[in-house]
Amino acid sequence: MPHPQTILTDLSYKGLIRVSGADAVAFLQGQLSTDIEKLTPSVSQLTSWNTAKGRVVTLMRLFRRGEDIYLAMPAGLKATALKRLAMYVLRSKVTLADAGSELGCLGLTGGGAATLLAQADIPVPARINDVTSLETLQVLRLYGEDVPRYVLYGSEDRLSTLKGRWVSATTPGTEDDWALQRILIGEPTVHPETSEHFVAQMLDLDKFEGIDFKKGCYIGQEVIARAHYRGAVKRHMVRAECRTVARLKPGMDIHAKGQDASVAEIADARLDAYGVWQMLIVVQDDFKEADLVHAASGSAVKLVS
Prior knowledge:
By secondary structure, the chain is α+β, with helices and mostly antiparallel strands.
């Protein structure tokens, strides 16, 4: 019997862009921080799209579906990405489309997730970033070793059938539950409030295979590469906790006691089952040992090793 904490979450709210055309790979190769030529039907990628100054506009999960490439991202950044990516198409044989209504999306996470997939005769992705397929259904394995995480893409009818089959064996999850799971494993995301705030390495994207330092040029590559080879990044992402009645949100400032200026910024934050805010914050390296407080409420912020 699956573990009782296997969580099933409807993720249809997430943003999705489809990139089609003969030049799709070449186009994205010049835009994103990973090597798109290594993207195959059996492997997905976590990648970033950056400004010319190396600041992350959004993070994306890429996967192939037939001849097309799909870019999954926070819904709040989809319109921005779609509009600004279109500015670079020029004469390339590339079509960009909002694919939110094309595919449904389910998240399945927890100790019994793999068992549920196997019982439904769905091939289970063995390794992180692996992709398996069954007819028109695709399963992507995301980051998370101790608590496996999978995301399923397919038709609404197919996913509805799976939800009906799994409802008694799972706990229904919310958007906050899904985000909390991601925070607890330290996987970064970028929200509209933090778009263009961070260089990719500040979000540990290099540790998540989200930067390929051997590929050719892409937007922001010069800044990102220089920061890598010169060790110029002085802020990094860490997990943190805070007990407060204040609502914590991405983009909020963290101060060190006795400091008027911000020394850290909240990248993501969600309440856990115990009423504690679990966070990912980007903090100046020199202040990792300092007494940190949420600037607006004065509540203590504790780093989690």
